[in-house]
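Researcher: Dear colleague, please comment on this protein.
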Amino acid sequence: MLAGGFSTRRYERFPFSGELVFSLSRIELGQRREVSSKAEIVNTSEGGLCIKTTLPLEVGNILTFNFQGKKEQAMVKWVLREEGIYIAGLMFLKKRF
């Protein structure tokens, strides 16, 4: 929140409680590997989600998942690490399935 009550966020966030099952591709030892994991959804907006997961995530990772009955892809825009938990901001990609 900026002085005067203005926020730099593009979309309003809404609390959301639920589990998210996602997958992402990683390159390990020169080989592409598909990784699946679970996350807790913290909040949602028109532009994306905030999640908590134990799987280490990096900015730029692309996650694929089902959300509200639709197959979605989102890019990790930021990550915070707190005691082995990764809190990440995801931005929905415009291309929808």
User: Anything to note?
Assistant: The chain is about 0% helix and 65% strand.
